[in-house]
Amino acid sequence: MTKDVIALTERMPDPLSVLAGLLSGGPDKLVGALGDGAVVQLCDEQGRPLVSVEAPLLVEVAGEAERLLGATAPPVPYWWTEARATTGVEEAERLAGTFAARLATLVGGSAWPPEAALSLAVVETEGVSVAPAPAAAQPAVDVLTDKVAVVIQDRPVVAMTAWLSDAFRATAEAGLGLQIVSPPGSTLSPAVRDSLGSGWRSRWVVRDERDGYYDGRTGAVLAWQDGMFAPAATSTATSVDSPDATADSAASQPSLAASFKEVAEFRERQLALTFRCVHPADDRLVLGGALESLWRELTGEPPAGWGTAEPANLSWSPRRLTDVAYERAPEPTWFVVVGSPERPGLATVLVRRTKAGVEEEVTLAFGYGEDEEPPVDALPGAAEALATRHRLQSMLVQLRKARRDLVVPPRFEGPGVPLAFVLGAEEVRELPGDRARRTPLDRPPVPLGPKTRPALYYPLPGDPADLSGWRDFERLMRHLKGA
Fold first, then answer.
1. How far apart are the C-alpha atoms of 34 and 66, rounded to whole Å?
2. Contact, 88 vs 67, CB < 8 A?
3. Which phi and psi angles does 91 have, rounded to 5°?
4. Where are the beta strands (DSSP E) in 248-340?
5. Contact (Cβ atoms closer than 8 angstroms) between residue 291 and residue 436
6. What are the tens digits of pLDDT across the range 401-419?
7. What is the largest CA-CA distance in the chain?
8. At what angle do helices 15-22 and 90-107 cross, to 10 degrees?
9. Predicted local confidence at residue 466, as pLDDT
10. What are phi and psi of 103, to 5 degrees?
11. CA distance 264 to 284
C-alpha cells in the first residue's frame, strides 16, 4: 500500500533541512523532480520513484490537521509537507518516515502518523528497485489500466489533497475513471465525495474482511475484473449499480455489503445547501461574496479559510480567491472553503466562464450536534441576501441526519429532506404568466426583494421522518418546467 507521511513544522523547511531529509536513503540515491520542481523524488537505480515529496505548504487556517489527520499541529501558521511512498515497497515507506522525522526534528514540529516516523537513521535500500509502472509519472496513482486509475489511501479522512486533485484532473483529461481504495476505518471528505460524481467507473472502494471490497457510497460488493473494480454479479441482488444491469436480469445485479447495511443511528444533523449565482463578466467582479454572505447569515461569522486543495491553507479572502480564478480563466477553477472548528462547515466552489457570464456553483454543508438546532428560521433572510445582492439563480436547502464533522462514512446514510427551494428574480421573470407564483403546493411562495422584481422562496415540509418533501419538490420542478 502507498504510505503518506506528513511533517507539520513550526518553520518553513529550508533547503538544507530538505536535503538532510532526502539523504535518508544515503548519498547515492537518485533525486528527480516533477512539476517544475514542485515535487522532488527519491529514485531507485533505474530512476523510478521510491518517495515523492511535495513542496511545503503554509497553513494559515486553524483546525485543518485535526479535521483531516486527527493530529495536533503547531499554532498557525505552520508548514505542511507531504511525502508519498511508492506502493508495496517496505523500504520506500521507511524512507518517507525517516524524511518526515528528520524534517520535524530540524525545523521543529511533528510527523504524522507518529509510528511511521520513529527513526532518523539512514534506510538501507541497496538493491531495492521499483517494478516498472505506467503510473510512475503520476505520484498519486498506484495502478493504471486502460479504464481507470487506482489510488490507494490509508488516512483517517481521504481528502482532496493536491496529489488527489492532480489525479482527478489527469484521469478526466484521459477519459478514465478514478477509483480510491481505503481501509474500512477511513472516511471521505465531502470534497472528494462530490468530485467522484456519478460516473460508473469512478468509485470509493472499501477493503472489508467480510465482503472483500465494496463501494463505500452505494454498498455494492465489488471485484477486480476487466481492469477495474466493478460490481460482483450475484443471484441474490438487492441493488443495481452496473451500467449493464437490467430490471429483468437479477443475475447481473450486485449484492450489498453487510458492513454497508449496518446503519448508524445519527443523532447529529447537517444543513446542506446547493446554489448557483451568475455574474456579468466584469473587471470589478469579486467572487465568494455570495458564499460569505450566506455563511454569515447562518453562523454569524465568515468562512475561516480556503484553498485549491485540502488542507484549506489560506485565510478567507474573496479578493485572493478572485485573483486565482482570474489567473486561471478561461479554464474553470475549483475551491474548497472551510469554517472554524467550533462550527463545522465545508463548501466546494466551481467557478467557470459561460455565455451567461461568470458562474459560481456552490455545495455547502454545516454540521450540528444532538443539542444544536440548525438555523432554519434564518433561511429566508439568507436567501433574500443572495437574491438581492449576489444574482442568485437557484438554491436548494436540505436537512439530513448525518455526522456533525461532515465526513462521509462507508455506511448507508439516509437521504436529506428538502426544506426550501429558491428561484432567482431573473428566472422568475422569464417564466410565462404567473407560473412561478401559482404552484401545486399547499403553501404559496414567499417573495424576496423588490415587489416589482422578486425572487421566490418555496417552503417545503422538511420533516426528516417524512420523505414526502421530495414528492413536493418533484411536483414543483415539473410545474416550473411546464411539464
1. 29
2. no
3. -65, -35
4. 269-279, 305-307, 314-315, 333-338
5. no
6. 999 999 999 998 878 899 9
7. 79
8. 150
9. 67
10. -65, -45
11. 48
